[in-house]
Amino acid sequence: MTFAIHGLAVARGIAIGRAVLLAASHLEVAHYFITAAQVAGEIARVGQARDAVVRELQRLQAELPRDAPSELAALLDVHLMLLQDEMLEDGVKHWISERLYNAEWALMTQFEVIARQFDEMEDEYLRERKADLEQVVERILRHMRGLALPAVVAPPATDSALAEAPALVLVAPDLAPADLLQFKQGVFAGFVTATGGKTSHTAIVARSMDIPAVVGARAASQLVRQDDWVIIDGDAGVLIVDPSPILLDEYRFRQRQLVLERERLARLRHTPCVSIDGEKIELLANIEQPADAAAALRAGAVGVGLFRTEFLFMGRSGHLPDEQEQYLAYREAVEGMQGLPVTIRTIDVGADKPLDKAHKDTHLNPALGLRAIRWSLADPVMFRTQMRAILRAAQFGPVNMMWPMITSVEELKQCRIHFETAQRQLTERNETFALPKIGCMIEIPSAALTVSVLLKLTDFISIGTNDLIQYTLSVDRSDDAVSYLYQPAHPAVLNLLFHIIRTASRMGKSVSICGEIAGDTQYTRLLLAMGLRRFSMNPANLLAVKDIIIHSHINRLEDELPKIIRNDDPEKSEKLLKKLNEMVFHADGDVKAATAD
Ligand code: PEP
Ligand code: MG
Predict the structure, then answer these.
(1) If DSSP codes are grouped into helix, strand and coil, which group holds residue 331?
(2) Which of 125, 216, 234, 268 could form a disulfide with 8 if both were Cys (CB 3.0 to 4.6 A apart)?
(3) Which run of H or of E encompasses 544?
């Protein structure tokens, strides 16, 4: 029976495929496709690991002291029974041979299938056996880690069985940004989570992967079953489960239309980004990994406006990358951009970007706590290590370095002292380096309101609207429960933005926006009218934003700005914005249709 689950639309597009349910605790298990030639080897790998666990448990059973509690013997019996259960074995074989999942993935998938059945049992004793199953599966996984991988490793794309396989859609209760990064190789065509906000970092990574995504779909993990057919409508923020043939046809039609639209936009790649009245606008890319430079170039970005370096530090169980490793990563990004500028932001962990699961932020208010530059200033050795790596990478192309979440001029001064120390340390080591331009992010209201002072100590600023909106409106950006209050067009936000852009322009300093609204076509014209000439965004949005810019007459848009800025009614802001976006211009700036009055 077809039904829909509503959430928040965070990454556009449509994905049609089979649901893959994952528990958050099992995401670190490897997920990749194998080739048909590897099927037997993978089945054998699970079999060997399972047999090893059986032997282990049988040994434990034999060695049980006579006076051991009877519950212990009974527990071992249950574990052995679960291990030898046909459903586990047959299911794992199915996922490996029919879907070409690697052994660990197949095991976890079948675990989810059986666990769901336990969940639905009336009998409490049987329901609780899910925990035993989990322990058994953990034991098998542990043994598999010790087994050598099968020798044949052919690229899966050449496998015809795989090419014909249905797309897969990930359904999980929650995903950390680092969890998502491991799927960047394209295993999943879309994803759905039960929690998360529109500008949560998980949503940002989804957009950078350019796959449709819905977050805050609370019931998804309970209502969707492993392998159900689902449609993700990333525009509407809806997950459709078990779609009828009519719905499937309709969505396949819309999918084809999206492909055509992408092809149309792709033709703009080499079109200069100039407005109708001749203003040149710079479109830059936000990246999370050095390899993303390729996508930035493909989209026609004229540089990287934000390299979120924290992703290099995540999921490493506390072993942070040393100077050399960081230097090589930054250098790869700089060289990857082939002479175009790269803005490297120093680490911004904390809040919804934990370093890893073991370091989950336990402070009462993580978003207001030891995050971003506060974290760096609290660990100067780590901070200076990162800046030394950036200084060394700056020899290989134009580099800008910026500090996140600056609150006050004192913080900026402290950063500068550490920066000078980092330079001195390199000089003492006889290491060569180049000086980057220095900037900071404006993402806290206190920084926005004192921006003229901060600009005196920096070469440039970049506005982090994701946080600026969060902190101005006191709305947690990753909490779907308050997402209705997260309003980029709130008059308070617009006035702050206008103040920052105007102040920087008057002082002759470079200002960009690297928050999500820079890549949201709904706000492109408004930002142009405010005087913004540098936008940094996820490469997937870049051509759509360019399309708006080349069809805009900025001078005429500026005429409309006072009304929008002076308006103090959030609802009216939306209406004024809509009118601005509907204006159609003649080449001479005359408005052809839908005047904004
Ligand atoms: C922002 O806050 O707008 C920003 C770009 O930084 P991040 O999303 O990484 O916090
Ligand atoms: Mg931020």
Answers:
(1) helix
(2) 216
(3) helix 542-550
Q: Name the amino acid, one letter, at 277.
A: D
Residues with Cβ within 5 Å of ion ligand 2? 443, 464, 467
Distance between first and last Cα of the chain = 48
Mean pLDDT check: name the lowest of 16-20, 351-355, 504-508.
Answer: 351-355
For tokens 């997937």, the residue is 540
Q: Which amino acid type is present at position 516? A: E
Q: What is the pLDDT of residues 129-163, one digit of tens each?
A: 887 888 888 888 888 876 544 333 333 444 455 55
Q: What is the dihedral of CA 396, 373, 291, 16, to 10 degrees?
A: -160
Residue 488 corresponds to which amino acid?
P
Q: What is the distance between the alpha carbons of residues 326 and 320, in angstroms, rounded to a whole number?
A: 10
Q: Using the atom order of ligand 1, give the atom closest to the CA of residue 286.
A: 5
CB 444 within 8 A of CB 471: yes
Q: Which atom in ligand 1 lies closest to the alpha carbon of residue 372? A: 10
Span 306-330, pLDDT tens digits? 999 999 998 777 789 999 999 999 9
Question: What's the token pair of residue 541?
Answer: 């949005």
Of 467, 473, 496, 535, the one to substitute when testing ligand 1's pocket (max ligand atoms within 8 A of C-beta) is: 467
Alpha carbon of residue 58 to chain centroid = 45
Best mutation site among 207, 371, 441, 512 for ligand 1, i.e. most ligand atoms within 8 A of its Cβ? 441
Alpha carbon of 346 to ligand 1 centroid (Å): 12
**Does the annotation mark 363 as catalytic?**
no
Distances from the Cα of 317 to the Cα of 59, 288, 356, angstroms: 33, 19, 6
Residue pair 353/312 in contact by the 8 Å Cβ criterion: no
> Hey, how many other C-beta atoms are within 10 angstroms of the C-beta on 304?
29
**Dist CA 517 CA 400 (whole Å):** 22
Active-site choice (201, 418, 490, 553): 201
CA–centroid distance, residue 34 to ligand 2 (Å): 38
Cβ pair 567, 573 in contact under 8 A: yes
Q: How many CA atoms lie within 13 A of 67 on its CB side?
A: 0
Kindly report the protein residue whose alpha carbon is nearest to atom 6 of ligand 1. Answer: 464
Known catalytic membership, residue 201:
yes
Q: Name the active-site residue from 26, 31, 514, 553.
A: 514
Q: Which amino acid is at 41?
A: G
Instruction: Decide if pLDDT at 90 tops 70.
Output: yes
Nearest-CA residue for ligand 1 atom 8 is 466
Distance 388 CA to ligand 2 centre (A): 23
Q: So what's the pLDDT on residue 163? A: 54
Per-residue confidence at 185, pLDDT binned at 50, 70, 90?
A: low
Distance from the alpha carbon of residue 514 to the mean position of ligand 2, in angstroms: 9
Sign of CA dihedral 186, 188, 193, 199: positive
Closest ligand 1 atom number to CA of residue 308: 9
User: Which residues lie below 8 Å from residue 129, measured CB to CB, with a gap of 6+?
Assistant: 78, 82, 118
Ligand 1, pocket residues at CB < 6 Å: 204, 306, 308, 348, 443, 464-467, 514-515
CA of 201 from ligand 1 middle (Å) equals 8
- Mean pLDDT within 69-74: 73
Structure token digits, residue 528: 């142009």
The residues, ordered by sequence, that sit 6+ positions from 198 with a Cβ below 8 Å of its Cβ are 8, 9, 10, 215, 477, 483, 486, 516
Beta-carbon-side half-sphere exposure of residue 78 (alpha carbons within 13 Å): 16
